[in-house]
Each structure stands twice: as structure tokens, then as C-alpha cells.
Fold this sequence. Notes:
Layout: H1 11-60, E1 61-63, E2 69-71, E3 87-92, E4 99-100, E5 120-126, E6 129-139, E7 145-153, H2 154-205, H3 221-268, H4 273-302, E8 310-312, H5 316-326, E9 331-335, E10 341-343, H6 347-364, E11 368-377, E12 380-387, H7 394-400, H8 417-428, E13 433-436, E14 441-448
Parallel strand pairs: 9-11
Antiparallel strand pairs: 1-2, 3-4, 3-7, 5-6, 6-7, 8-10, 11-12, 12-14, 13-14
Helix pairs in contact: 1-2, 3-4, 5-6, 6-8
Amino acid sequence: xxxxxxxxxxxxxxxxxxxxxxxxxxxxxxxxxxxxxxxxxxxxxxxxxxxxxxxxxxxxxxxxxxxxxxxxxxxxxxxxxxxxxxxxxxxxxxxxxxxxxxxxxxxxxxxxxxxxxxxxxxxxxxxxxxxxxxxxxxxxxxxxxxxxxxxxxxxxxxxxxxxxxxxxxxxxxxxxxxxxxxxxxxxxxxxxxxxxxxxxxxxxxxxxxxxxxxxxxxxxxxxxxxxxxxxxxxxxxxxxxxxxxxxxxxxxxxxxxxxxxxxxxxxxxxxxxxxxxxxxxxxxxxxxxxxxxxxxxxxxxxxxxxxxxxxxxxxxxxxxxxxxxxxxxxxxxxxxxxxxxxxxxxxxxxxxxxxxxxxxxxxxxxxxxxxxxxxxxxxxxxxxxxxxxxxxxxxxxxxxxxxxxxxxxxxxxxxxxxxxxxxxxxxxxxxxxxxxxxxxxxxxxxxxxxxxxxxxxx
Length: 458
Ligand SMILES: Nc1ncnc2c1ncn2[C@@H]1O[C@H](COP(=O)(O)OP(=O)(O)O)[C@@H](O)[C@H]1O
Ligand SMILES: [Mg+2]
């Protein structure tokens, strides 16, 4: 049986505490009642036995011609002959020497307990400590009083009880351990659907599944069904919104093209050239916004959602290869860790981010573009893209991520790349950092490291 993992505030802890309380109460109850019952029982047996012995002693006792007490034969229990065995008897006739058992090599018994023909008992001092003493009074042929006394050490009874209690304690400890072990097994068995649910949620989060899979007990099955329905509705809403955003953007393109034409026409006229210019600028801004939103919609549609994992440098390799074809006269160098790193980012998003930054570096580099993957801390992975081009001034860097911003119109572009790169970094939960390098520009981002145990996608 595997001991289940326990953390504070967990269901397991609650069940475990309940089981422990239950076992402790149960075992304590058994201990108490068993001891009481046994003690009563053994005491009763003891007293019955002593009564039998005192009667036997009375029967065997006779007085000889001189009135001295003597036994017809020894008592049937041999312990009365063994010295200081804890089992003693004594017969006293006033004026005669006292007759004692062979076991009584010293001491004497108090005959006062033998004061009536009926059997009486008391705890008195005996030769070897406190003794349970039984006695009865008989009359001899000439009317003499004969005190007949039997005594057994109290410790005999106590030892019997103690040995029982000791044995009972061992058995009850074994029972308690067994009950606890079965309790743990039951908890583990009972909560295993929750473990499976946890794994199903992990698969969902790492995009290995589209819904919570598996069969669950009736208590949590409705919850799982509801969650699945919620997930389905949610992704439907997201998908529908994407389509609507795309449709909206597309539907605006034709009117914008017409507006552009009109604006250019207005610019032909020398008197209204300035207004034409303003119109054209505004139309261009609208077009950029639309292109940007369309690009975002497209890349978001490919991404598998939050919680997904990707591997570095694996994800970067096809991007670098594409860049080498796109900018054949530039050199792309990848430096990275010896072992692959898992990043808590969607592979589609990560590839897009890398291709935007590598494409910019490729466009403006003199010769060299470098992508460096490093791990500054156990929970962070850093990607850094540097080139040896003209770079950007601090002012330019401050504005570079705005939609449509372009500083160098000699190279082709839309001015959307860095805006998208910044948004993708936001989606991943990090920030895009641009800074001037020794030469050229350095773009970097620190991504959260993924859980290496999770199955990476990418
Ligand atoms: N690595 C770079 N070196 C120099 N300038 C750059 C670099 N990356 C981006 N820029 C500047 O920032 C502007 C915005 O970049 P971006 O948003 O990717 O748009 P685009 O690449 O379409 O022009 C570019 O037009 C360019 O002037
Ligand atoms: Mg660009």
C-alpha cells in the first residue's frame, strides 16, 4: 500500500484525523472493557478456588487424642508444599501448637478472619506480602474452636491480571496499526478519483486534451460534466469572437480601399491637398490597426491556451532555418543550454515571438544575428536576440512597440512586429525588453520555466 501524500488543509488529512480518532476511541474502548471483564472474571475464579481450598482444609483437619490439630492427608494443591510459594494455610486451636502448610517456612496468618462457621475473607499481611485470606471457624469434638485459614498472595492475582493486560496491549497495538493501515488504504482508494481528476486537469492545461477525460464516481461526475460543458461553451465563444473579429476586419477593407482612392483623388486638387493628406494618414492608421488585429486573431487561433509547454531550443530551430532562407546574406547563430529547457509558453506563440524578433534583427543586422537561450534562475528562461545593425535610440525604443511605428522606411515592413511581440510577451506573462547593445539592438524576454515533468508540446 502506498502512503498517500498529505498536505495541510487536504481532504486526506481530514479523513486521516477522523480515522485516527476512530481507531484511538475504539481501541481505548476495547482496552477498558476487556480489562474490566477479565479482572472481574479472574477475581471470581480466584475466590471460588480459595473457597474450595478452605473447605478441603476444613474437611481434612482433625484433632488427635491430645486435641492437637493434624491433617488426614496433604491438600490436593501441591503449591501449599512449596516454600514461600504464595499459597499458605494455617490451623489454630487455642492452647495447641499451630499447624501450618510446608510453604510457610516463616511468618503466620491472622486467624481473626476465621471467626464464624461461614466462610469470611479479607486482605491481610501474609508471609510474602499482602494476602487474600479465607477462613472459617469449626468446633472440635470437645467444643474446641478450630481456626482454619487459607491465604494466597495478592500479588499472584495482580501478576495474572498484569500478564493479561500486557498481552492485551500488544494485541491492541497490532490491531490499531492494522486499522490505521486499512484506514489509509481506504482513504487512498476513496480519493483516487480526485487524483485522476487532477491529472485530467493537468492534461487539459498542457493542451494534451480538449476536455476532462475519464469516468468519475457519481459524487464528482456532475461536476466534471458541468466543467466540460463550461470548457466547451467557453472555447465556442472564443472561436466565435475570433471569427467575428476577422469578419469585421475583412469587411472594413473594401470601404478603406475606396476611402484611400478618394483621398488620393482629393490630394490631386491643389486646394484640398492638405485635407487629402490627413484623410490618407488616418485611413492608413485604420488599415494598420486592422492588419494588426487580424494578425493577432490568426496567431491566437493557433495557440493552445494558457498552461501549455514548449521546448527550447527545439522551437527556435525551424524559425532560425526560415530566417536563414529569408535573409541569406546574414549569419544566424544559436547559442543555448546543453540540455533542452521546458518553457511555460505556447509553442505557436513562442515561435511567433522569435520569428518577429529574428526577422527584425535579420533585416537590420550588418552580418550577424545571435539568439541566446539561457537559464538565469531555476524558474526562468531567458531568450536574447542581438544584432550588429544600427540599433535604435532610447527615444525610438520607447515608441517602437506602438502599432504602425517604423523608423526606417528603406526596409519592407508594416510596423506591427514589435507591437505583436509585446502582446505575445504579455500573454506569456512576461515583458519584452529592448535595449541598445555594444552594436545594434538587443531584444530579450524572461519566460517562466515549465514543469519538466509535464509532457511538453513542441
Ligand atoms: N533590430 C533592429 N535594429 C534596428 N531597428 C529596429 C530593429 N528592430 C526594429 N527596429 C525598428 O523598429 C521599427 C518597428 O519594428 P516592427 O514593429 O517590427 O515593424 P517593421 O519590422 O514592420 O518595420 C522598425 O521599423 C525599425 O525601424
Ligand atoms: Mg518587424
